[in-house]
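Box 3.1 A note on notation
Throughout this textbook, protein chains are presented in two layers. The first layer is the amino acid sequence; the second is a token string describing backbone geometry. Keep the layers aligned when reading.
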Amino acid sequence: MALIVQKYGGTSVGDPERIRRVAERVCRFRREGHDMVVVVSAMGDTTDELVALAESVSAAAGKRHPREMDMLLTAGERISMALVAMAIREAGQEAISFTGSQAAIITDSTHTGARIEEVRAGRVREELNRGQVVIVAGFQGVSRTHEVTTLGRGGSDTTAVALAAALNAERCDIFTDVDGVYTADPRKVPTARRIEHVTYEEMIELAVAGAQVMHPRAVEIGARYGVPIRVLSSLVDGEDGGTLIAGKERGMEDPALTGVASEKGWAQLVLRGLPPEMRTMTTVLSRLTEAGVSVDLLTQVDRADGRRLVQITVAEDEVEEAERTCEAVVRELGGERVDVQHGLARLALVGSGMHKRPGVFAQAFETLRREGVDVHSVSAASTSIILMVAAEDEARALTMLHDAFGLGAAA
């Protein structure tokens, strides 16, 4: 039979009853003959409670004490892994739990946001060969200097897919509180439907654009190593349904769009009157990098008078630092000024079928124009179109585009 990696999120292990349900599900797979590796998140709101506890001691705990934050936050997953291992034993199967360091998940040295460099799966394999179900704490690893690290947002998904890749597992099942990936957020678009199959590339674009079912880091690892990923609900019995994230299926031509996603909390900076030289863009980007500001979208336009306009999109919580940095760059390069627009939403139209297909841009813009929704900037790649709109227009624009492209129709 197959080796399967399963990941259970915080809701799935949120209380003793749900932990027992997880144990029963895992044991069913084990009785069918599968080797099982189970990755768990912290129970329910445990991580938030630990962060709040740290902030009661130090208001800027994450910035001032990143090493100690990692030591603290890893406790949440350690609790889950031990309880799940106990529940599996009570349900009749042998199980052993490992922290990220015991499972040899090797990361870089960045505290509170480390990246996995290597998974040395020897000890996990040894326990699988002994017939054990192996429970691994998600979200954490160890650096080459033997420091405990955490992986940041989406860390447990990333842990699970990385283990599946290292173990050459048949697939990685991500159990969460939703039953798959939808054509849009059902809370915003009631007509959204579940997608049965989505490519790695499409899922990365949807995740980056605000779809919270999977983190793009985890999907990137799956794509790199060819690990099929299934998204399923842990709150229902059985493994039917869900969404498969894998390579492109052969078949008829794809529809233009697979799904749409959106996210509020963005701002736009426009740097005006800059010199039309290569050093303009490199200076802007290098200064923002030094300031720790992540740029989401960037465009440049040369004006009729020969000066250059640079437009940058950043997260709202980074806009103050970005504005200070950009104003310094404008002064340094002899530019005019920096204009800032707050309160934007990032809207993404995603689908591998839009490649070289005429009319997608036109249909999207015409749909928004009819309803009086202004587009503040646009960017495109082979599988996505990104539109920036006012945050108050987000839900309306998302619904209109979802309907205009027939995403709510029967598959």
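The two ends are 32 Å apart (CA to CA). The first strand starts at residue 3 and ends at 8.
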